[in-house]
Write a structure and sequence with these properties.
Blueprint: E1 2-6, E2 27-31, H1 36-40, E3 47-50, H2 56-62, H3 64-70, E4 73-77, H4 87-103, E5 106-113, E6 118-124, E7 141-146, H5 150-161
Parallel strand pairs: 3-4
Antiparallel strand pairs: 1-2, 4-7, 5-6, 5-7
Length: 162
C-alpha cells in the first residue's frame, strides 16, 4: 500500500513522493501498488513510457529485471523542483535515477518539446534539476536507451525534428 497525495480524484499532479511538493496537497489516499516484475517478467517489452510525478526511480527499480533482460527504450518525465524547499530532495532523486540507468549501461537524452512535438534533443550524462518555470517545463522529458541502440535512437530523433 502506498499513500497518494492529491487535491482531487482527478489531480494529474498527485504523487506518492511526499517530499516532491511538501505541504501542497490536501488529501491522502491509500493505493495498492504491484511490482511489475512479479507479474510480467516473461512479457517482452521494447518501449516504456513513464509519467509518475516523481516516482520514476521506484517504477524503474520495480521493472529492473525486465529492463535488464529486454533493454527497452524508455521515455520518462522527470520534473524540475516544485520549490526551493524541495530542490535538494528533487536533485538527489534525479542523481539516484541516473545512477540506476548507468548501472544498466543506458544513455540519457533530454528532449525539448512544445505542446505538439519534439523540437530538439541533447545527450546528457546526468539530469540537472532547476526550479520549475514555464520554459523549464519544455525540458522535463527524457529518453533512456541502451548504449547498444545509440545509432538507431539518434537517427530516429534526427528524422523526428526535421
Amino acid at each position: 500500500m502506498l499513500v497518494l497525495e492529491k487535491d482531487s480524484d482527478t489531480d494529474s499532479r498527485a504523487s506518492f513522493i511526499s517530499n516532491l511538493r511538501p505541504n501542497y496537497f490536501a488529501e491522502k489516499e491509500n493505493v495498492l501498488a504491484l511490482a511489475y516484475q512479479q507479474f510480467y517478467i516473461d512479457e517482452k517489452i521494447s518501449f516504456i513510457k513513464i509519467d509518475v510525478e516523481g516516482a520514476e526511480y521506484e517504477v524503474l527499480k520495480g521493472m529492473s529485471k525486465a529492463i535488464e533482460k529486454y533493454q527497452p527504450i524508455i521515455t520518462c518525465e522527470v520534473l524540475d523542483s516544485h520549490s526551493m524547499e524541495a530542490f535538494e530532495f528533487t536533485q538527489n532523486r534525479a542523481i539516484k535515477l541516473c545512477q540506476l540507468l548507468h548501472s544498466w549501461n543506458y544513455n540519457i537524452i533530454r528532449l525539448e518539446t512544445n505542446d505538439v512535438r519534439i523540437i530538439n534533443f541533447e545527450s546528457i550524462d546526468f539530469i540537472r534539476i532547476v526550479q520549475w518555470s514555464p520554459r523549464s517545463y519544455m525540458l522535463n522529458d527524457y529518453l533512456f536507451y541502451p548504449k547498444s541502440k545509440k545509432n538507431e535512437v539518434i537517427n530516429t530523433l534526427i528524422k523526428v525534428i526535421e
